[in-house]
Each structure stands twice: as structure tokens, then as C-alpha cells.
Write a structure and sequence with these properties.
Elements (H helix, E strand, L loop, with lengths): L1 H31 L11 E9 L5 E9 L3 E7 L4 E6 L4 E4 L8 E2 L2 H7 L17 E10 L2 E9 L5 E7 L5 E11 L17 E16 L5 E8 L6 E8 L5 H4 L6
Length: about 250
């Protein structure tokens, strides 16, 4: 009986240490990128980026977020736009092939895109109902990185790889059951694709070219999604700008 008791105690103690270690890594990451106490104050965010397609065409992306309320992504291919809007209750998409008319997202796509509502999922993760686990260390581009598995309150898992020296987020992976949007695209950094579900696929996103905003937050200005289009180069980031939420719903019939 004592042996069983000590075994259970040891397991609980190990789990506690792991949880504490994961939280410590996350706190150091938040501190290194702006401050653990400052990230919760970020309520709105606007990012503008450019990518260069295989034909040399510039692809302009604009992402606007209101924390926990709405996210809107617009991708201008030069000959048309791809648009995606997500709220806690629903989501919509539009592309040149469907005439630019917004359609309701399939539930599978909405479940994945709901992550876009959170400006920083690692900030106050426990208060949001998420659980963090330290899953060891791995090499990312020749450098050691902590692997944090974050499970959201809805059961969605994502792995965050945090550089063991700088504590910047250098890679992210997650499983995707991508329901490709009717209307096309290759699903790259500009948005999700179009068509039928492709089955579970691991998506790998890497981050580089870290720069500090005037407000003191550190963001990666280069974002690459493996096998899904050209890399995004951020040209502008606005932290806590005034955002008209009604304008983000422009074009959507409710």
C-alpha cells in the first residue's frame, strides 16, 4: 500500500514540476517579447505584409484583430482578393472564384481559424482554459528550443518551439484537417485553400527576423509556412490601434 502511495505521489510531483517548468518557459518568452504583464493589454492588432509569388507578383496581406472578438484577413493577389472573417460564433470567406461574395465557413475550417481570435495564445493561457506541457527540447535551425504543447479549452493542440537562448518563438506546428475553400488558392500564408478536406496534415510555421515595435513588443517580421506558398515579410505592425469593429464585417450579410 505504501509503495502504491509513493508511486502516485511521485507521479503527481513529476507532473507538477513539468507544469511549473512549462509555465516558467512561457513566462520567460512573454518577458522577452514585451513583458508578461503587458501582453494582456494588447486588445487590437493590425499587421500588413507582402509576399512575392512564383510569377513575381506581389501579394499584399492585411490582418486586423480585436482580441477575442473578431479577426479579418484580406489577401490581395493583384487580380482579386481572398478574405476571411472569424468571430467566436461564426466565420466567412470570399474569393475571386465565388465572385467575392462571402460564404459561411465549414465547421472544420472555423474550428481551426478560431485560433486567429487570440492575439497571443501563450499570454494568460491558463485563464483562457488552456493547458501547457513541456515536451522536451528539439533542434530548430541548429539551435536548441523548448517544445511547449498547448491544448486549448476546446481540445485543439499546438506545439510552440521557444529558442532556449533568446526565448523567442521560432517555430509552431499543428495538425490541420484543411477544408479547402471553394474558390481556390494554395492555402499558403495568404489564407486557407479551396476545395475538399485533405485529411490530417501537420502544418509547420517558422518565424525569423525579430524586431521590436515602438511599444516594446517583439514580433517576427518573416513568417514561413512549409509547402504552403511564399514567405510573408511584415512591413507594418500597429499595436492597440483604434479599430472600427463594424467595418471588419463589411460585405457580410447576417
Amino acid at each position: 500500500m505504501k509503495r502504491i502511495y509513493f508511486t502516485i505521489t511521485a507521479i503527481l510531483a513529476f507532473a507538477f514540476v513539468q507544469a511549473q517548468t512549462a509555465d516558467e518557459v512561457i513566462q520567460k518568452h512573454l518577458q522577452a517579447t514585451g513583458g508578461a504583464d503587458k501582453w494582456p493589454t494588447v486588445k487590437t492588432l493590425i499587421m500588413e505584409a507582402v509576399a512575392v509569388g512564383q510569377n513575381g507578383q506581389e501579394i499584399i496581406t492585411k490582418i486586423t484583430k480585436v482580441q477575442g472578438k473578431i479577426s479579418r484577413r484580406e489577401v490581395d493577389f493583384g487580380m482579386g482578393k481572398m478574405k476571411m472573417v472569424v468571430t467566436p460564433e461564426s466565420g466567412w470567406f470570399a474569393s475571386p472564384r465565388n465572385g467575392g461574395t462571402f460564404e459561411t465557413m465549414p465547421q472544420g475550417m472555423l474550428a481551426e481559424q478560431s485560433q486567429e481570435l487570440d492575439i497571443n495564445p501563450l499570454s494568460d493561457y491558463a485563464a483562457k482554459g488552456s493547458k501547457a506541457e513541456l515536451a522536451g527540447k528539439e533542434q530548430v535551425d541548429g539551435k536548441e528550443a523548448f517544445k511547449i504543447k498547448l491544448t486549448s479549452s476546446k481540445g485543439k493542440e499546438r506545439n510552440y518551439f521557444i529558442d532556449a537562448t533568446t526565448y523567442f518563438l521560432v517555430k509552431e506546428t499543428f495538425m490541420s484537417n484543411r477544408e479547402r475553400m471553394r474558390g481556390g488558392g494554395n492555402g499558403g500564408n495568404g489564407g486557407n485553400g479551396g476545395g475538399t478536406p485533405s485529411g490530417p496534415t501537420e502544418v509547420t510555421v517558422t518565424f525569423d527576423n525579430f524586431q521590436k515595435t515602438p511599444e516594446g513588443f517583439v514580433f517576427p517580421f518573416t513568417i514561413s509556412t512549409a509547402g504552403m506558398g511564399p514567405k510573408l515579410n511584415l512591413e507594418k505592425i500597429e499595436v492597440n490601434p483604434v479599430v472600427d469593429e463594424k467595418s471588419l464585417m463589411e460585405g457580410i450579410k447576417q
